TrEMBL record:
Similarity-based family: Belongs to the Rv1128c/1148c/1588c/1702c/1945/3466 family.
Domain of life per record: Bacteria
Organism for this UniProt entry: Longivirga aurantiaca
Entry protein name: DUF222 domain-containing protein
Ranges of compositional bias, category Acidic residues: 240-250
Region (Disordered): 238-260
InterPro entries attached to this UniProt entry: DUF222, HNH, HNH_nuc
Domain (HNH nuclease): residue spans on this chain: 375-427
Amino acid sequence: MRSTLAALPLEQKAARAVTALMEAAEAVAEAAREGGFAAAPAVVQPALAMAVLRSADQAKAAATVAVGAVHASGWLPDGQASLGRWLEVAAGLPGRDANGLIAGARSLAEDYSDLLDAWLTGDISGPMAATLRHGIDTCLVRVPSKERPAIRSSMVADLLPHAEHRTPDRMAKALKDLRANVDPDGANQAEIDAHDEQHIRFTPVGSGVQVKGYLSNETYAQIRTALEQTVDGWYREGALPDEDRIDPDDDTRAADRKRRQRQAHLHALALAQICTDALESGTLGTHHGLVPRITLTGSLDRLAVGLGGELLLPGHDTPAVVIPDTFRRFLCDAEITPIITANPSDTLGPIDLVLREANEPFLHVGRDYRVVPPRLRRALEHRDGHCAFPGCRVNVRRCRAHHVEHWEHGGPTDIDNCVLLCETHHRAVHEGGWTITAAGTDPRLPDYWAFTPPDRPRP
């Protein structure tokens, strides 16, 4: 086939080669459909798989050249509005991939012909060609344009011989190291830019808040280290609920997926714990003598008719709606500011309460007081030792004092009506429907409380 094609004019050679490629691809696909690869001896299967991968990669290199030729011609097939749109429709490529293919074809043809040749001959893979191209472009981003061609050619010549023996990931790391050598001023400025461009955005979504942002490597390392140290401490203390523990000996795919999910969940809890400790310690400073805090507003009138409250989201004008059971969870262990208003509400129903103006005149704002005083808190910690929920060993420092009979229903703030619960099981009781009843005779002794799951099946 090669000798036959060599004697043909260039355009005929390309057409016949493409025809041969299509026929070969159909034959390979048919063999795959018929189970030919699975039927091959095990010692042969890796070689067959690698041959198909390499051939497909070389075909992709040729496809890149072909797309570049279409782009250079300026002719739009089938009356399409753009070459990218044509690739989306005819080749089934996502818009981002189609545009990336066009940009890559143009860049390889104009600036990286040596990389393209190496890809076409199979000396390097497509991912390696992309890694080199993007990495070198990044190194040159702040280099004066007139100096770029010479430096680019020199870097390609130096790096290509090593590309055959390295993975794209290792080559990408080497290129990052080279940037400081090629353009030290640019590397320094990139570090400054990374610091200046850091941001975190909070967007209320559903019943929570979505967090997105960008951090410099240094900031990320600091935050990730703090989160992992916090979680590691919980592991060492055995202070995690059963559902948050990860078995290190289980290496199945499902266990690995669960491990990643639970790690992300635990990091979120660790961030909340770090912030809670900072707020409660008062080290963040005060405002008019008040320790910083979160603000939840509501009333006993609203709870009485089945309404919740509103949680002030810092930085947002609209507060988040808090359902009644969540509102009660906050009331268990928080500082309460009683506010007496001018409008009595003992005759108002749910609709009246929801629609009533929030800025009704205040007659009196009471002083803050701690629902669970320090002396009682110490007694609870001594009695319970950790989260009192069955099987949970979360440290008392991370627990809330829960009122078994809700505070707004007249439940006293006393040792025979309070129990320590971690955040997870505090929610399980309030929002999850678990009930707590006295199982012992002396509320000062451990295991005084019994926990009963809800009647309905848990989702």
